[in-house]
Each structure stands twice: as C-alpha cells, then as structure tokens.
Amino acid sequence: MKKNFILAAMAIVASACLCSCAPDKNSAMKKLERITNDVEANYKEYTQADWEQFMNDYREADSLINVFRKEYTQEELEAIGRNKGRCAGYLVKGAVNKGKQQLESAGKKVKSMIEGFSDAVEKQER
User: What is the DSSP string of 10-53?
Assistant: First the structure.
C-alpha cells in the first residue's frame, strides 16, 4: 500500500513537471522578447558564433509562435511583429558593422600593399 502511494505521488510530481515545462504561447512570446532584448543590447559585440546562435534561437522562437498563432490576440500579434522587426533591424545593423570592419581592414591592407609596392619600385629605379 505504501509502495503504491509513493509511486502515485511520484507520477503526480512527474506529470506536474512535464506540464509546467511544456511550451505555451506565452513562453514563445517571452523567448522572442528575450532574444530581441539580447541582440539589441549586445549586437555590436556579437561574434560569428553569437550570430549563428541568435539565428537558431530566432528560428526556434518563430516556430513556437507559429504553433500557437491562432491563440494570440491582435495585440499580441502586433507585439510579435514589432519584436521580429527589431530583430531584423539589428541583424542588418550587425551585418553593416561587420562589413564596415572588413572594409576598414581591407583598406589598411591595400594601403600597406601600395606602400610596399612603391618601396619595391623605387628600389629598382635607384
């Protein structure tokens, strides 16, 4: 009898844990909001690995949102749209920053190459 009671109690606790961990419409929205706030605060320091993680997290949140799409109110859908737009904006900003850094780096390399080439040409003429 005691054994059955313990097993039943364990089953109830396990069920409660599983139910509380299952994603719902609010957890999907919160995940997107968390991702949006993180990229907004940190996009300038993101590495390539960070951007890949961001995209994976974004796709996961978007998939969850699509599962619960019919359950959202118009206000919630608008909030989701704003967060998706903010994510897209920071993705573009991140790409622009990376492109700018690469151009600056290339510019320094080209300048150095031109200087080296000029030095070599001048030495030949002497």
Answer: HHHHHHHHHHHHS--HHHHHHHHHHHHHHHHHHGGG--HHHHHH
Specify the pTM: 0.65
Q: Which two tokens stand for residue 46?
A: 């993101």
Distance of alpha carbon 28 from alpha carbon 60, whole angstroms: 9
**Structure tokens given for 48:** 């390539």
By C-alpha distance, which of 52, 62, 60 is closest to 83? 62
In the block, which residue shows the tokens 């109830």? 12
Hey, what amino acid is at 119? Answer: D
Classify residue 1 by its DSSP letter. -
Those residues with Cβ within 8 angstroms of residue 11's Cβ, 6 or more apart along the chain or in another chain: none
Task: Please compute, for residue 34, the number of CA atoms within 13 A of its CA located in the half-sphere on the CB side.
Answer: 10
pLDDT digits (tens, 9 = 90+) for 38-85: 999 999 999 999 999 999 999 999 999 999 999 999 999 999 999 999
What is the token pair recorded at 97?
């920053």
**SS3 assignment, position 124:** helix
Q: Whole-angstrom Cα distance, residue 9 to residue 4? A: 9
